[in-house]
Amino acid sequence: MIALLIRDLRLAVRAGGGFGLGLAFFLIVVTLVPFGVGPQGDILARIAPGILWLGALLACLLSLDRIFALDFEDGSLDLLATAPMPLEGVVAMKAFAHWLTTGLPLVIAAPVFGILLHLPASAQSWLVISLLLGTPALSVLGTFGAALTVGLKRGGLLLSLLVLPFYVPTLIFGAELIRRGAQGMATEIPLLMLAGITAATVALIPFASAAAIRVNLR
Amino acid sequence: MSLWEYANPVKFMKTSGFLLPWVVGLAAITLVSGLVWGYLFVPAAENFGGSVKVIYVHVPAAMMAINIWGMMLVTSLIWLIRRHHVSALAAKAAAPIGAVMTLIALITGAVWGQPMWGTWWEWDPRLTSFLILFLFYLGYIALWAAVENPDTAADLTSVLALVGAVFAALSRYAANFWNQGLHQGATLSLDKEQHIADVYWFPLLLCLAGFVLFFIALVLVRTRTEIRNRRLGALQQRERMA
């Protein structure tokens, strides 16, 4: 499993900016928002949680179709499926590698983007916590969508249509957590719900993804 | 005699062919009488005016929108567990109907919301979760359309229906938490007291039954079409092989 993780990470880094691409996309989204809504600090501060979460969501979506597609094309996915390791474990590791290359950089860089959008200092820690708790769910749900569409020639657009509705609960609780944190309100409910969704998806979705991959390899 | 006999396409075609005219007839009678009763013979309610009559379409459509996904969930499970093709095809046949029901509920809701709340659209939890449900339907239909091998498509969409059901419900509660709504709470329920006067309730009941029957008739027709389509494909393939 560790070997698979390292292989995936190495592929992501060497195949052209696995780490950088998501971050650069995030930066572009954050740069474009003030052009769209105007440079007033108070408006930006109010919509910052939503923008940052939407940016994370889209950045995650960008790299999803690569999770299985390359392995499917060159046949290594068949090898992984017949390997002694359970396919569920393979899927979970793939999701983890995806999170390490897209989710984690966003979490680390998020405070900088928060400053760009005038997010109050009190909300910065909530921003990091919320992204740290929520982005693993994005990656795991993303692998499910990628597993469903792996055999398709033009799966990209369909993948977004399938995956984005699954992101709704995470998005709601994630953005709500930052909003409440920024206003000094009670944050327990969104915090627990966000953590609960992530824990449940990490535990259960790999089974669904593995089932979908088995169907697609048949 | 067991329910699983109808998993045999020949048996299903025979029985559904016999049932279909009856279901269509019953659906037409209940739907027409319910709607005529509701629209022409029910007094306008205070606080609501004439606009109350939209419930005779809005409520049944909304109910069907949710329950059709439930039906797809059950048929998908049957397909995954027992591999009966009719079941998978019934789920496929139901999805576009569900999407249209969701759309009808959203549109009639907008038409009703305009005079009542003064707005066509509000980011209310119920409205929002219906929009999300609509997206789930679209994704499901798109996945069916995108996968070429029918068995692969049936498997993948079944998994999607299962996971989607969980997330559609989750989105509903998340949306509840996210925004306080304008939409009134549940009026109809099986175990609690009714909050609706009998004058409005009886025609509504007829409309509910009519929508259910209408849905059954549509699903039967569409499933029969799918089965015939599948047969045609098999015949064509055989011809090509020969």
Structure notes:
The complex is a heterodimer of chains A (218) and B (242). Chain A is mainly alpha-helical and 218 residues long. Chain A has one domain. Chain A contains ten helices and no strands. Chain A has helices spanning 2-14, 18-37, 41-62, 66-73, 76-82, 87-116, 121-148, 156-163, 168-182, 188-217. Chain B is an all-alpha fold. Chain B has one domain. Helices cover 78% and strands 0% of the residues of chain B. Chain B is built from six helices and no strands. Chain B has helices at 9-40, 55-82, 85-117, 125-146, 150-178, 198-241. The longest helix of chain B is centred in the last third of the chain and has 44 residues, at 198-241. The interface between A and B is medium-sized, with 28 and 25 residues.
- Give the number of domains of chain A: 1
Strand content of chain B: under 5%
Question: Can you count the beta strands of chain B?
Answer: 0
N-to-C CA distance of chain A: 23 Å
Mean pLDDT of chain B: 85
Instruction: Give the overall shape of chain B, derived from the CA principal axes.
Output: globular
Q: Multimeric state of these chains? A: heterodimer
Major interchain interface with per-chain residue totals: A-B, 28 and 25 residues
Secondary-structure-derived class of chain B: mainly alpha
Which descriptors would you attach to this protein?
A: 218 residues; mainly alpha; 10 helices; elongated; B: 242 residues; 0% strand; transport (chain A)
